[in-house]
Amino acid sequence: MPPVRLPLHGDSAANATDDWPRCRCPPEPLVKGHRPKKLTFPEDPLVQSYMTRHPEAKLTPIFLNGSQPAPARVFAERQLQLMQARRVAL
Predict the structure, then answer these.
(1) Measured in whole angstroms, how far is the alpha carbon of residue 75 from the centre of its chain?
(2) pLDDT tens for residues 12-43?
(3) How far is 35 from 40, CA to CA, in rounded Å?
(4) Quick one: 46 exposed, middle or buried, by C-beta within 10 A (0-12, 13-18, 19+)?
């Protein structure tokens, strides 16, 4: 039995005799619809202001499986509690 020649990657003969099935279906149309509103929390402006005042807080590691939130969130939650106790608007 003679050896079988395997086609190389860029071989033009391989492209001509390619037996792999080709996808001839049209692409699915993009569905454009209503986008949901951006999810915001009451403490988000406080977290943003904390991050602008303390840029080194962005480098603090956050443990995703830990029970303690990030320092910016701790500050924002406490500040929000104080503001609600004294009835101060954001």
Answers:
(1) 25
(2) 555 555 555 666 777 778 888 888 899 999 99
(3) 15
(4) buried
